[in-house]
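Message: I would love a firmer grasp of how sequence relates to backbone shape in proteins. Thank you; the sequence and its tokens follow:
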Amino acid sequence: MAQTTTAFRFGTYGDPSVLKLTDVDLPEPAPGEIQIEHEAIGVNYIDIYHRKGVFGAPLPLPSGLGMEGVGIVTALGAGVNTFAVGDRVAYVGGPPNAYSHARNLPAGRALAVPDALSSRMVAALIFKGLTVEYLIHRCRNVVPGDTVLWHSAAGGVGSIAGQWLSSKGITVIGTVGSAEKVEIARANGCNHVINYRDEDFEARVKEITNDRGVDAVYDAVGADTFAKSLNCLRPRGTMVSFGEASGPVDPIPVASLGAKGSLFLTRPSIAHYTADRGEYETAAKNLFTAIQDGIVRAPDITTYALSEAAQAQADMEARRTTGSVILLPEDICRTKSRA
């Protein structure tokens, strides 16, 4: 029998005010789908890009929002035999509709969650953790002895990256925007932390590396950092541009990559690194093992009620948050605090 649920929708691109919480139909899951009731929902910068219509092909409107969540399976579509009602699953990807109390999801996007991991922890880590997993293992496989520069080192992705990279014997140089975030980045494994408001990060990186440069730069900031980041690379280094929090990167002449040292440049997307089911499951296994082994620790988690999703995005966009941001459906929300 068809039901209704509460979910965010937006019918125009713009600031957080375009997000509207509304009652929507929740049909029975179609063949190959499962229905889940959310326990925790991750908030990521890609959600902001989708809301603004600035990431790849803009979402067709009106649209739901949100790419990751953790919940309990409540119904199965025809042909689904990999999960059972009552299973706890997490997901990354699929049609954007995570900002909801319940939803239908292609079963191929669902991942079984180990009993030892809480739903809040998984929601705080799954998208960001899988992002780090592919960036440091498959996009540019860093090895012991490498030195990398990671921008926004105190954020959700940056905190996980610092932990995982330091466990692999990588020297991590992180950039942050405040004294408070300097300490957060250090606590999460950065060997050197640069407050870009006080120092020129390009000059400082050259000083730290004795003018050698770094093996890779991981940059989700975009316009404000891209050009100088290229200058931080050693010959044949790799520039990984995986976001544009400060705005899109201006076009660059391809020949300039050669002039700067035969550099490699990539603009990866998690969608292309988790499209294959086997690769997706292996990446999740690597992440869950790293969490259970204590290599990747739960970051500071900022919680908002699901109804506060617009405020959560506004705070994230203004860089008022650290660690990971999650939404909790009101019926299980235990706190409205920001800790």
In short: The domain at 3-126+276-328 is CATH 3.90.180.10 (Quinone Oxidoreductase; Chain A, domain 1).
